[in-house]
Amino acid sequence: MSSDWTPIALSRDVPDGVTRAVCLEGSELVIWRGAGEAHVWEDRCPHRGMRLSLGFVRDGALNCLYHGWQYGASSSCVRIPAHPDLTVPPTIKANAYPTCEAGGLIWVGKEGAGALPALPATTTPVLSLAVATDGIEAQGLMRDLDGGRLHVFWHRVRPGKVMLHGVIEGSADVSRVAALMRQIRTQYEEGVAA
Amino acid sequence: MSLTTDQAALDQWYVLGAVSHFPFGTPVETGLLGEPVTVTRRDDGVTVIGAGRSLPVRTTYNHVWTSFGTPARDIFALPEATEPDRRWLYCGGVRVAASGLRLIENFLDLAHFPYVHTDILGSEEKPEVAKYEVEQRRDVDEIWATKCEFFQPKAAAASDGGQISQYMYRVVSPFNVMLYKTPPTAPNRWDVIALFVQPVDETHSIAHPFMLVIDPTSTDAEIIAFQQMIFLQDKIVLENQRPALLPLQPGRETPTRADLSSVLYRRWLKEKALTFGTEPRTDGVAAGA
Ligand code: FES
Ligand SMILES: [Fe+2]
Fold this sequence. Notes:
Strand order of the largest sheet of chain A: 2-3-4-9
Distance between the termini of chain B: 27 Å
Order of helices and strands of chain A: EEEEEEEEEEEEEEEH
Strand content of chain B: 25-35%
Number of domains of chain B: 2
Shape of chain B: globular
Number of strands of chain B: 15
CATH architecture of the largest domain in chain B: Alpha-Beta Complex
Number of domains of chain A: 2
Radius of gyration of chain A: 18 Å
Oligomer: heterodimer
Shape of chain A: elongated
Bound molecules: FE2/S2 (inorganic) cluster, fe (ii) ion
Number of strands of chain A: 15
CATH topology of the largest domain in chain A: Rieske Iron-sulfur Protein
Order of helices and strands of chain B: HEEEEEEEEEHHEEEEEEHH
Largest interface: A-B, 22 and 25 residues
CATH class of the largest domain in chain B: Alpha Beta
CATH architecture of the largest domain in chain A: 3-layer Sandwich
CATH superfamily of the largest domain in chain A: Rieske [2Fe-2S] iron-sulphur domain
Structural class of chain B: alpha+beta
C-alpha cells in the first residue's frame, strides 16, 4: 500500500461547516469542510500564527478567529477585514496539503502524492480510537465479522500514540465492531500483534 | 528552566504583582526569566530573593518591581498617577501559556476587537482599522502609536452605547505597555490601562493589568470584572498562537498596515538584541544585527 497518503479522520467526524484539529507525527493540522469539500491545512494562520482550527466556517470559507482573515477553498486569503477595500495579494495563503476522501476516510498526501491505495467501494465509518503504541504494521488490517469486514487504518499522532480509524464493509453490528477495535487496542498496548 | 543569559532581558524592570496582593509576612514563590523568585512583604517594605541573592526592589505605582540586571533607565514616568480624581485598580495576575512578547503585541492590536471581543470592543460590521501613526521616541526609548480610532459597541464598564474610541499606545519596555483611551464619561481626558507582563519563562507569563481611570459611576468590582472578561478572551487566542514564541524572522508571519505598531515593536526588540521569548531564527541573522 502506498505510503504517500495517510488517513487522519473519519469523514463523518468532519461534517460541513466544522473544523477539527488533528495531530500527525507531531504536526498540528486542521481539517475543515465547506461546500461539501474537506480540506487539510497546517493549523496556523499566516497572519499571526493563530490556530485555524479555532476559526469558523462561513460561506464555504475558513475564517481565522483572531482577526477574521478569510481563506477560500484554494487556501488563498480572500478577505482581510481590517482593510475592507484591499485586494489581497495572492501570495497570502494558508499552507494546504493534498487532501482526498475515500473509503469513509479523510486522507492527507505528501506533495506530489501518487494515486490513493485501492479501498473497498462501500464502507461505513465506525470509530476512531487512540492506542498507546508507535505504529501498526500495516494499513487496512482486516477482520471478518458476521455479515461484514472491518478495515483498520491509522495515523501516528506522535511517538507512542497512534489513532486507529475503523470502517466496515458490508453490514456488521456496530457495537461488535467497536468491541473488536478495543480488543485490537489492548493487543497493541500489551505488545502482542493482533 | 534556569535564569536566562539574555542580557537585554536581564537589564529591565519587571512587575511581580500589585503590592496589596502580597500578604504580610508570608513569602510568595513566583518566577521571572526562567528563575524562581520569592517575594516577601513586611511592614517595612518588600524584599525579592532570586538566583541566591537579594534583588533590587521598587514599589512604584503600588507594584512590586525587580530586576536581575542593571536597567539603563529608571521605571517610566506616568504623569496620570498624580491626578487626584483617578481610580487605581489592580485586576490581579492572569497566567497565560505564551511568550510575554505575544501578550504585548496582542495588547497593541486593534484589528482583533471585532473577532475576539465581539460586540464589546468591536463589531464585525465595522472591522476597519484606519491608518494610525507609529513612532519610536528615542529620547525616552519608547514606542508610541497615536491617532488610533475604532468603533466600539461597549468600550468600557460605564458605556451605555457604541462610540468611536480614540486610543494611544505606549510601549515603555519590552514587557510593559499601556494604552490611553477616551473614557465614556470624560471625552477630553484619557483613561490609562497598563499591562505589566511578568515573563515567568519563555512561554509562560503572568499578565498584571492595572488601570488609572476616570469613572465616577461604576464600582471597582464592575470595572475589574469588565477588564478580566476582556483579558480572558485574549488568553484564548494567546494560548493558541503558533509558535508560542514571538517570531522575529521576516516572512514567518504576515503583517499588514493595521499591524504597524507590531512591526515597529519587533524592530525595536531586534535593535535591543532581546531574544528571551522570541523564536530562534533559522536565517543565520543574529539578534541585534
Ligand atoms: S492570526 Fe489569523 S487573522 Fe490574524
Ligand atoms: Fe484583546
